[in-house]
Each structure stands twice: as structure tokens, then as C-alpha cells.
Specification:
The structure is a single chain. The chain has 389 residues and is mainly alpha-helical. Helices cover 66% and strands 6% of the residues. It has a four-stranded mixed β-sheet, with helices on both faces. α6 crosses α7 and α8 (186-216) packs antiparallel against α10.
Length: 389
Amino acid sequence: MRTTHIIFQIAKREVFRIATRPLYLFCMVIAPLFCYIFFTTLMWNGLPTDMPAGVVDLDNTATTRNIIRNLDAFQQAKIVAHYAGFADARKAMQEGKIYAFYFIPEGTTAKALASRQPKVSFYTNYSYLVAGSLLYKDQRTMSELASGAIGRATLRAKGATDDQAVAFLQPIVIDSHILNNPWLNYSVYLSNTIIPGILMLLIFMTTIYTIGSEIKGNTQKEWMQMADNSVTLALSGKLLPQTLIFFIMATFYNVYLYGFLHYPCNSGILPMLLAGLLLVLASQAFGIFLFGLFTTMRLALSTASLWGVISFSISGMSFPVMAMNPVLQGLACLFPLRHYFLIYVNLALNGYPLIYAWHSVVALMLFMLLPFFILKRLRTVLLHYVYIP
């Protein structure tokens, strides 16, 4: 009962500090909500649409004009300009007016009808990776469709039926079934990791700041006296209100993504809520560990920022970990976001039972043990360290 009373009194003190300092409100509520809305609305359509592209049509026949109209009908491409020559189109792409252009040389239609294999070219600006990749895909698809259309017209002229022409042009039909994300919504892959990752980063920094501010304000001895000089009780009471608030924010993004935006959640929302709680606790434990390791708020905040930013790259959401250098594959296990990402993929996307993600659950629980390695050092700092401005 006394332990519970001590934790409650410290938690009440922390609630007052949170309520009287706007920085806590910003880091714990405003910043997460802003990021939730910003990233999901940024990719509201799943992929960028109507990206500007140009055309150089030196043939200017009914066939090539039909190719251009079909290319413009693609969701990602929007033909915004026709250029007289290659140099003009290249200059426009270098100036950033278009991301790609489609080049049709003179005599393309005549060569195609005569089966002399005309060549068309398409150029994309890969300085913008997503835009360049998507427009390259659209232009390549359009070239293959145009080739098939011209081939079908040629076979028709030779007396073949439509079925015979299609069987000749496409002897093997590809029937694709996209698993888990059939809409190819890019936001489904990114938002489910970026949003928890930002929350994790904010937890890192808030946890370090809330301990460091006690030392900076020379109030750490008062805090420790309330806990009978027990660093475990002091941390438990101090971080309890933050744990509740951050878990509410984790619950909110789960409800927002899976309930409101209807992102795939094949395991049900309860396992993802558990994953969110584990991420919150692991992030707080990691923040305590960093502060106890460096004992200064400045170095701990810098390390937490670096660790949080690297997490986005090494978690595997944008580039598969299995394709990284073996050293980086091993280091990926040191980032909480990597294990949350694996839980999300196994549970929400693939719909496996929680037992299939046991290794990631255990890894996040191991992060919660990190503070025990620095409790003695942290207790010494809180009892004897005097902050000198």
C-alpha cells in the first residue's frame, strides 16, 4: 500500500508539471496528432497522381496520337506539354517542369505496320525516385500495349480473328493476385510504420527531457525524497502519466488507421493495440537507458534523435533488411521500430496469430529491461549530481 501511495503521489506531481508546461502538451498530444493527419493526408490517394509528363511526337499520326491519349489516361501520368524536339523536352525536365517525357520518332507508325520494329524512347528524372519510378512504369506499360495493338491490327489485316491475334500476341496470360494490399496503396506500407516511428521518437525525447529537467531545475532530490530514495519508484511514478497519455495516442492512431481509414488489419485491432503498448513501454525504457548511459540531457537527446531517425531506414519499411549488409542486418535488432514493423507485417498485413510474432514481442520486452543496467548509476546522479548552468 505504501508503494502504491508513493507512486500515486509522484504521478500526481508529474501531472501538475505536464499541465503547467506547454512543451509536454506539444510533444505528447499536438505533435503526434499533427503527424497522424499530415502523413495520411499527404498520401490520401495511396500514390501520387497526375504527375506532369511531356511528349515529343515527331510522327504525328492517328496511331501515335492515340498512344498519347492512352498514356494521359493513366492515373499517375498527366501529359502537360507537347515539345517540338528532344532538346526542348530535356530542358523542361531539367528545369523541373516535367518528371518524364515520351519520345516518338518520325516513321514509327509506318515501320510498325511494316513489321520493321520501330523504337520509341522514354526518359524519366530519377532525382525524384517515386515520380520517376511510377512514370517509367506507365510509359513502359503504354509501349507494350501500343505494340500489342499494332500487332493485333496487322494480324487482322492478314485475316486473323481477334481470338487468334490475342493468342499469338499473349500466349501466356498473367493472372495476378496482390496479397494484403490489393489497392497498391503506398500509404498502407508507409503510414503504419512512419506514424508509430514518430511516436517512438517523441517518447524517447520526452522521457529524457522529463528526467533531465529535474536535474536542470535542481528538483531531483525532492523527487527522490518522495520516492524514499528509490529510483525504481521515482521512475514508475514519474512516467506513469506519460505512459497513459502515449498509450492513448497509440490507441488513437490504431483506431484512425484501421477503423476510419480502413487500412488492412487482418488480425483484428486488439493485437495491434498490444503492439502499440509494447512500443510505448520499450521506447520509455530505451529513453531511460540513454539518459542513464550519458547522464546529461544534451547528449542523451542527441543520441535519441539519431537513433530515432535511423530507425526509419533500418526498420525495413522502405528497403528490405534481408538485402542490407550483414552487419546492418544484425544492427537492425537494436531498434524497437524494427520489431514493431515485424509485428505489424505478421499480424495486421498477413493476419497470422500473435504466436507467429513471438520473437518480436520478446524483443520489445527485452528493451524494457534496459533501465535495470543503469539504475545504480542513475540513482547516484539523481542523489548527488548538482546542475551548474
